[in-house]
Design goal:
single chain, mainly alpha, Hypothetical protein af1432, HD_domain, HD/PDEase_dom
Length: 210
């Protein structure tokens, strides 16, 4: 059994303790996105990508109240070789948006996983996830009086409870231009346009500028 298959078994129950925006189905979608991006790539460590996908949200501060092994501890438990573990952890560290304060990408694996994860944050599924997370955290659907932040620290990004629609402007609408791979850019274009249509329709139904 491969390390990534063992990892899948190890993390499934952990993710299913998260809300619907970051559950195991999210992991499976990100894995599908990663495989689509890698379809015509040759020089990429696919096992590192798979391991990084399975582990990329394990240490997410948003779910720190849920007790589980850390990503590093899981890699150690699975006896993953050190060089592979180092690549996996560097890949994971570069994934998070963090209010626009993302870390520098240093590998093709990092580019693949970052794009794959961000694709799941936009489009139809991105809309569903934004409102699922907002609902789980008690956030408003929208607030036309809320200021949209164009610059913020990672702490401010995580600590301030803005409405779900404000999250579109502070993160989701920015992701299309931040894609690193050509397949990622192509898929993001379609999903981005769908989100724009959604907000336009929401404005029509609410009679407010959102």
């Amino acid at each position: 059994m491969t390390y990534s298959k063992q990892c899948e078994i190890e993390v499934k129950e952990i993710y299913n303790k998260f809300d619907a925006s970051h559950d195991f189905d999210h992991i499976l979608r990100v894995l599908k996105n990663a495989n689509d991006i890698m379809k015509n790539m040759k020089d990429v460590n696919r096992e590192a990508v798979e391991l990084a996908v399975y582990l990329h949200d394990i240490d997410d501060p948003k779910y720190s109240e849920i007790e589980s092994l850390s990503a590093t501890e899981i890699l150690t438990k699975l006896n993953v070789p050190e060089d592979l573990s180092v690549l996996v952890m560097k890949t994971i560290e570069s994934v998070s948006f963090s209010g626009g304060n993302s870390k520098e990408i240093t590998s093709v694996e990092g580019a693949v996983v970052r794009d794959a994860d961000r694709l799941d944050a936009i489009g139809a599924i991105g809309i569903a996830r934004a409102f699922a997370f907002g609902g789980a955290k008690g956030r408003k659907l929208y607030d036309s009086n809320e200021s949209i932040r164009t610059s913020m620290s990672e702490h401010d990004y995580r600590a301030t409870k803005t409405s779900s629609v404000t999250h579109f402007h502070e993160k989701l609408f920015l992701l299309k231009e931040l894609m690193l791979t050509e397949p990622g850019r192509q898929m993001a274009e379609v999903r981005h346009e769908f989100m724009k249509q959604f907000i336009t329709q929401l404005e029509t139904e609410t009679g407010e500028k959102l």
